[in-house]
Design brief:
Layout (H helix, E strand, L loop, with lengths): L6 E8 L5 H13 L3 E7 L8 E9 L9 E6 L2 H7 L3 E10 H4 L4 H9 L3 E5 L6 H12 L4 H12 L4 H14 L22 E3 H10 L5 E4 L6 H10 L3 E4 L3 H13 L4 E5 L1 H17 L3 E7 L16 H5 L9 E3 L4 H18 L2 E7 H4 L2 E3 L61 H13 L4 H5 L4 E4 L5 E6 L2 H10 L4 E6 L1 E3 L4 H7 L3 E6 L5 H10 L8 E6 L8 H4 L4
Parallel strand pairs: 1-4, 4-5, 5-6, 8-9, 8-10, 10-11, 11-13, 12-13, 16-17, 16-19, 19-20
Antiparallel strand pairs: 1-3, 2-3, 7-14, 12-18, 15-17
Helix pairs in contact: 1-6, 6-7, 8-9, 8-13, 10-11
């Protein structure tokens, strides 16, 4: 593998100018050449003062994030000033000549000290992205026809004259612009094209293909694009409600009528849903809640990344209850968990939370094979008896359901404690029976489902790293080069599987890697398994709460 892999490319621009399409072209082009791709987009909600950027990391068989990049495409001088510290020595800046003239003195000193080369071009029209993209393709020895194909794919939804204008620009400069660079970079075709998608889309399409029937949401960063995907599919009834209380209540009504229902939210809006979630627990309404975290408290820093809401997802409402919390760690799992959550909600007539975060919601990456499970709706009575008991006590603790409008299938769904028919009751014996019913249906969950809730890499090592979410990509890369560590990525947080304790017992050290100050993952696992009472086990952590994800450089602190 060439020394410059993985190749890091940063596209940076002023906040008021959106250049996502340029990044999409680069990422898609790389995937079509069979490379692995992973991205990181960072932007501030205060669009007046900030510099946005979109990092793309490309390699044949590696996928992780780094603080450092090899190439910067900059769409103004201030964005370059802000991001110059991320550029490696001896590499390249690509920029419009008019912005090069505005680079400040300190940035120029950095450029000189790092022996950085500037590739610029005098651009007099509004198509900076096409010119700079073509310079990049020239630097990477990519045929201009491949760029044309990608531009066609990205811009085909817009006017045809835009596509033709972009092709004309590339043709115009393809033979007149020369590059003299020390490295010979050839991003050549390795194999057949790979698919590249973004996380929210994968989750949305996983749910859509698992017979999602109703979706409600109130737009809020970082998961608003799930609603966009639902609308675009034209396969799902949806509601963009006026507030989050309407969102959850409309979904519960849909669930009452036997529709597979899903809502999306983030912590601030999820706080408004908690009373309705408690109602869903009592009435045993199946509901899937996509909970995408961002940095808090209060409004916080709404477009940045932290994992502050793990405790909230584990305890999402008042009262004593049990539910399921999934936390996908890859793009493939995001798709699969869209299926799995709907199946589990129906089978156990329970509440399933798909926990995500800003970084994963907006991550773009290449995909491997997708697992497509079967649709499971749980226990159904097609011909219920006249004395149908909606909350019947059974050996499995899960009561048979009926389709809406089924003869003899009427029942009461109350927020009060109730008997097997749903009628309000304050009988102590009924209370005991129904409380046990709601808890016991999730007992022996892993045995019944025959699934693994965590992924293991390098299990022979004595130092164990435990993490969640997309951080697994970068953690996996760290493990490859540091054999004294092994990795567990948790993908189902609740119910918690006792098998993890057996994995931990024989280790010398367990290191919890998470993006919050208080160590919510560490506290949860340590308390549940009484890890502090394992005398030979050292419990340590790597925590980050600076709004940015874990980079490979952060993991190197463990060495």
């Amino acid at each position: 593998m060439p020394a410059w892999f993985p190749l890091g490319i940063k596209i940076t621009w002023p906040a008021w100018l959106w250049i996502n399409s340029t990044a999409e072209v680069i990422a898609s082009l790389s995937a079509n050449l069979w490379y692995e791709v992973i991205t990181d987009i960072e932007y501030e909600s205060r669009i007046k003062w900030w510099s946005n950027y979109f990092d793309i990391f490309i390699a044949p068989n590696r996928k992780y994030l780094s603080k450092k990049v090899d190439i910067i495409l900059s769409f103004d001088a201030k964005s370059l000033d802000y991001n110059i510290h991320t550029l490696k020595n001896n590499w390249v800046i690509i920029i419009n000549q008019k912005f090069r003239e505005k680079i400040n003195t300190e940035t120029y000193k950095t450029i000189e000290s790092k022996n950085i080369q500037i590739l610029d071009l005098k651009i007099t029209d509004k198509y900076d992205n096409t010119y700079l993209l073509w310079i990049l393709s020239k630097l990477l020895s990519i045929p201009h026809q491949a760029i044309n194909n990608e531009l066609q794919a990205v811009f085909w939804k817009k006017w045809a004259d835009i596509v033709e204008k972009n092709k004309e620009i590339i043709k115009k400069i393809s033979h007149s612009y020369t590059i003299d660079f020390d490295y010979a970079i050839h991003l050549k075709n390795i194999w057949d094209a790979k698919n590249i998608e973004y996380w929210n889309k994968m989750l949305a399409h996983g749910a859509i293909e698992c017979w999602l029937e109703y979706y409600s949401a109130y737009p809020m960063t970082p998961a608003s694009t799930i609603l966009s995907e639902i609308i675009a599919s034209k396969k799902v009834n949806y509601l963009q409600a006026e507030d989050e209380i309407s969102v959850i209540n409309s979904a519960l009504w849909a669930s009452f009528t036997w529709a597979r229902s899903m809502v999306w939210t983030s912590g601030g809006w999820f706080a408004l849903m908690t009373e309705a979630v408690s109602f869903a627990v009592q009435a045993e309404f199946p509901i899937t809640i996509v909970f995408s975290q961002r940095a808090w408290p209060s409004t916080g820093t709404p477009t940045f990344f932290e994992q502050w809401d793990l405790n909230f997802a584990l305890n999402p409402t008042f009262g004593d209850f049990d539910h399921i919390v999934l936390y996908p760690s890859t793009l493939e799992e995001a798709y699969y968990f869209g299926w799995l959550a709907l199946n589990l909600a129906d089978k156990y007539q329970t509440q399933v939370i798909i926990l995500m975060d800003k970084q994963s919601s907006e991550l773009n990456g290449t995909l491997w094979k997708l697992n497509v499970p079967e649709i499971e709706r749980g226990v159904i009575l097609n011909n219920p008896p006249q004395d149908y008991k909606r909350y019947e006590l059974t050996d499995t603790w899960v009561s048979p359901r009926v389709h809406v409008w089924t003869k003899n299938g009427d029942f009461i769904a109350s927020s009060y404690e109730h008997d097997e028919y749903g009628a309000t009751s304050e009988d102590p014996k009924v209370k005991v029976a129904m409380t046990q019913k709601r808890f016991k249906k999730l007992e022996n969950f892993y045995k019944k489902e025959n699934i693994s809730w965590y992924e293991i890499i390098n299990s022979e090592a004595k130092k164990m790293i435990i993490t969640t979410s997309f951080t697994s990509y970068t953690a996996n890369e760290f493990i490859k080069n540091n054999s004294e560590f092994w990795l567990i990525t948790i993908t189902i947080l609740k119910p918690l599987d006792e098998r993890l304790l057996e994995e931990i017992k024989n280790k010398k050290e367990v290191i919890f890697v998470e993006s919050n100050y208080s160590g919510q993952l560490e506290n949860y696992i340590t308390k549940e398994f009484w890890l502090k009472y394992i005398k030979w086990l050292k419990i340590s952590n790597l925590r980050k709460y600076d709004l940015f994800p874990f980079y490979i450089e952060d993991f190197n602190e463990l060495i």
